[in-house]
Amino acid sequence: MNTAMHLEFTSQLDYLWALMPEAVLATGALILLLYDGFFGGDSSDNRAVGWGSMVIIALAAVANVWLMGVEEVGDTGMVALDGFRTFTNFIFLAAGALIVLISFDYNRREDIKDAEYYALLLFALVGMMILAGSRDLILIFLGFELMSLAVYVLVGFNRKDPRSSEASLKYFLLGAFASAFLLYGMALLVGSAGTTNIGLMGVMLNAESAELLTVMALALLAIGFGFKVSAVPFHVWTPDAYEGAPTPVTAFLGAAIKGAAFAAFIRIFVLGLGDFHAQWEAIIWWFAALTMIVPNLIALVQNNIKRLLAYSSIAHAGYLLVALIAANTSGMASFLFYLIAYTAMIVGAFAIVLVLAGRGDRYQQLSDYDGLGWSRPWAAALLALFLVSLAGLPPTAGFVGKFYILRAAVEAGYLNLAILLVLTTLVSYWYYLRVIVNMYMKPSAEAREGVAWAASLRTVLAVCAIITVLMGIFPSWPLLKARQSVAGLRQATEQVVETDPLTRR
Amino acid sequence: MDFTQLIFYVAAGLAVVSSLLMITRKNPVFSAMFLIVALFSIATIFVLLGAHFLAALQVIVYAGAIMVLFLFVIMLLNLGHDFEPDIRGRLGWAFMGGLGLVLFAEILTAVQGAPGDAGGDVLTPWFEAKGVVAGVAEPLFRDYAVAVEITGVLLLVAMVGAVVIARREA
């Protein structure tokens, strides 16, 4: 393309262009559903649908590359066209592709009829991308619900396992609760700002004389997002949902969904209402502090590997909250960097847990990992790598990511949170290293049936391992990209107050 | 107090009372019936605001179609009898009631703190200029057309999800 395309959002067609990756994914998911209806038959081996969804994700990624060259006029369109959106889109699409690849074997092993599985996965991706890429509260809520509904079903997809249904129901009930809080907060925010557009809100609202209404709206919004990113004290659903869900969906929950909710969290709180930092800082500070302390302590006594990783994922939400509260360019860049690193290591760790659990997910206790280092050296080595990265030890991506978050926090003057981050990370070494000690220093438990390492799974493990190591050793390039994509995001939006649909009349 | 205000207070009071009754009845059929009353009262308030079309939609879609669906589901699942409440024990009730009261107090103080009648009567001139149907249709299908499209996808996902969950294992 020679000249960059400009979108003014004067006609509805502009929205189709602006939402091209999402449109590709949604259309592809519809085609998958129709294909299965006509040609799917009864066979449980639906790999054609799986590969089809890989192709669709690839097409959406191409559309996203094209979107990087498109520019918007002004920065208050309902759909954002900034580096932050395209960057997070890439992360979600990559996570989606990795999840599809590890789902092939899992679904065959657990005998899951999976045409709708892949379609729902794609719809969940659409929801995430809308959630993370919109500047309008209505679209953000719709994206939130689209993602959540698809994932509630995915969590309960394994109908033969009562744990899966239980997890789905718990997640659904608490998720609906969270949606109510979110909607209540949005309603109060619209009531005080008079617009649903986040970009305009910063202009319409005066931070110096903030009304009670606005502050309450911020608190309710923080609670709603706190549920979705599993911030303490709204984390209670997390271990149950993570344990009961089919393992690929657990990886999806841990990586992409949390990332999408965080991206919207940042878009509203940092980009839209950054002037209100003084008002929302207190509540987010407590969220961040509790979310770092509590799960790291509870994880010390976990014996189920999926629950342990669930608590680890809650703790990581706490670290990301530190990046959010910093609310500066470094904070947002470190969030994006950490999101890539975290996606790679959590998907990799769950991929290994998935294979080793065996048919019917029988082997999930920590004691099942005794002596693994000698009976399955490759699996043990890779799991050790991912755990070391999750713990944040050099030379892995997790270390660099935590380091950048620390730096952003110190730059913004949150020395106490930075110290807390270091201390809780030190505590977390104990439970990550416990797994590694089990694998290498204990005698093997019992002889088990051999597990199949399919090519798709090996690919995922290789990709995750390479990202984890490379980003640990050469972090400058991804960090540069992350910085570029958030550069200049917090610019004034005064010039376009008149273009909002609600204030236009 | 003129006639319009009188109607407003009656409708608003009815909406509040029937909403409270709806969430406190043990029998789901009663709850559904009180929901109808609440929806009708809100439709009345829409009429007072000059939004006749919205009121008609409210009655047709919610009080009509959605309620029939509710009652069908109650009938098909044989839920038409009293339920044990899910919230057990005094502590649970105290917690839930306290949470509700806090949220209620929140909105009360927030509304009191808000600048009274900020925009004045916005709706009536808007509907007079556009007509009652176009006044709803124009924002919906012009400014928020994307939201309508995404809602379509959302409903489809809900439907696919329901089919997946309800499907009998072969």
Automatic annotation (TrEMBL), chain B:
Look up the domain of life of the source: Bacteria
Record localization: Cell membrane
Q: How does it sit in the membrane?
A: Multi-pass membrane protein
The UniProt keyword set, sorted, is:
Cell membrane, Membrane, NAD, Quinone, Transmembrane, Transmembrane helix
Record-listed E.C. numbers: 7.1.1.-
- GO MF annotations, alphabetized: NADH dehydrogenase (ubiquinone) activity; quinone binding
Please give the InterPro entries that the UniProt record associates with this protein.
Answer: NADH_UbQ/plastoQ_OxRdtase_su6 (IPR001457), Nuo/plastoQ_OxRdtase_6_NuoJ (IPR042106)
**What cellular-component terms does GO give this entry?**
plasma membrane
Give, as one word, the top-level EC class. translocase
Reaction(s) catalysed by this chain, per the record, are: a quinone + NADH + 5 H(+)(in) = a quinol + NAD(+) + 4 H(+)(out)
Q: Which Pfam families does the UniProt record give? A: Oxidored_q3 (PF00499)
Kindly list the residue ranges recorded as spanning the membrane: 6-23, 30-53, 59-79, 91-111, 144-166
Function, as annotated: NDH-1 shuttles electrons from NADH, via FMN and iron-sulfur (Fe-S) centers, to quinones in the respiratory chain. Couples the redox reaction to proton translocation (for every two electrons transferred, four hydrogen ions are translocated across the cytoplasmic membrane), and thus conserves the redox energy in a proton gradient.
Please give the family membership noted in the entry. Answer: Belongs to the complex I subunit 6 family.
- What protein name is recorded for this chain? NADH-quinone oxidoreductase subunit J
- Organism of origin: Candidatus Kutchimonas denitrificans
